[in-house]
Design goal:
Length: 337
């Protein structure tokens, strides 16, 4: 969890950055060398892709994280439990031989998903959530939902019965809505009505980007409404897209927002609230698909994500508290139970 305070056990911890208090070595600024130890965290929003790209990127997440919620937006998407099981096997084969990384699988919700598929997913022991992509919202979302209440309500009702969380890409796709307003409009037109209709449905609003999303999550019932937060949305604002020229490697969806929104998200994750989870949304693309005339959305951050999260906490003086380490540890316990 991004905001848990615990005493990490040596058996769980791994070394990160340079911070043990040791007066025997001095920097050129005469400050003591430091070594920081963090308990191994989980990543609650991760894209591993497939094929050669999966082989290239999976070891980076496995090096730093114990478990991860794996996104299902492949080509074709992971819409069935059988496909999720097969994809999980591909991920395990791509891991280093000594890795203990555990992929937690999800299903891609479509207009044709059946309630019975939710039952199969729950009983599989490997599928832990269902992902809602509004059709056309982001990478490989063309098969996403076009009518949530008209075509998916029986599935959502079954998810309540099976205690299966819904993970949400929270943006509308109406071209008449400004790209910087799509998260807020989604909250007002989709999420608010959804929670009012199905208050026992567990909903995770993923990769939140706005003050509006923070307020919405904080207004919901704990244990039924939460959010994941990426390192890029904690570190960058929308200026980062344009400084020094167009910056394709800072382009992701939802797109970066104003500085006031970034500050609101930082305040939320450092507040001690259990509603905000670590979710890197690490989303790799081949270089030629990022650096082109129509570059793909997504930031590959897996190798540096923990460094960036730690930077945010350090900057708000939250990293140390009487020798208690702030760590990033399994934030979704109540969503798993």
């Amino acid at each position: 969890m991004i905001n848990s305070l615990v005493f990490p056990r040596p058996s769980e911890a791994f070394k990160f950055a340079s911070t043990r208090f040791d007066g025997s070595r001095k920097s050129k600024y005469s400050k003591p060398r430091m070594e920081l130890t963090l308990t191994q965290p989980d990543d609650w929003h991760l894209h591993l892709r497939d094929g050669d790209l999966l082989q290239a990127v999976a070891p980076h997440s496995a090096k730093h994280f114990g478990r991860a919620i794996i996104m299902p937006n492949l080509k074709p998407p992971i819409t069935t439990t059988a496909a999720a099981v097969a994809y999980r096997e591909s991920i395990l084969k791509a891991l280093p031989a000594d890795s203990n990384f555990t992929p937690l699988m999800t299903l891609y919700l479509t207009d044709k998903t059946s309630p019975n598929e939710i039952k199969l997913a729950r009983r599989s022991g490997v599928v832990f959530a269902v992902k809602l992509y509004p059709a056309g919202a982001t990478t490989n979302s063309q098969d996403g939902v076009t009518d949530l209440f008209g075509k998916c309500l029986p599935v959502l009702e079954e998810m309540v019965e099976e205690n299966m969380p819904l993970l949400v890409h929270g943006e509308v796709t109406d071209p008449d809505v400004d790209v910087f307003d799509r998260e807020k409009v989604f909250i007002d037109t989709v999420l608010q009505p959804l929670i009012q209709r199905l208050p026992r449905l567990k909903v995770v609003m993923e990769h939140i980007t706005t003050m509006d999303a923070v307020r919405f999550v904080e207004s919901g019932e704990e244990g039924f409404l939460a959010a994941t937060v990426t390192p890029q949305h904690l570190i960058l604002n929308r200026n980062a897209l344009f400084q020094g020229g167009l910056q394709p490697h800072n382009y992701c969806l939802p797109v970066l927002k104003r500085e006031t929104h970034r500050q609101a998200i930082v305040s939320a994750v450092t507040s001690g609230s259990k509603r905000f989870f670590l979710g890197t949304d690490s989303a790799p693309h081949e270089k030629q698909r990022k650096e082109c005339s129509c570059g793909c959305a997504g930031i590959f951050n897996a190798p540096v994500a923990l460094s960036l999260y730690a930077k945010v906490f350090e900057e708000v003086h939250f990293l140390f508290n009487y020798k208690v380490l702030t760590i990033f540890k399994n934030a979704a316990t109540e969503f798993e139970s």
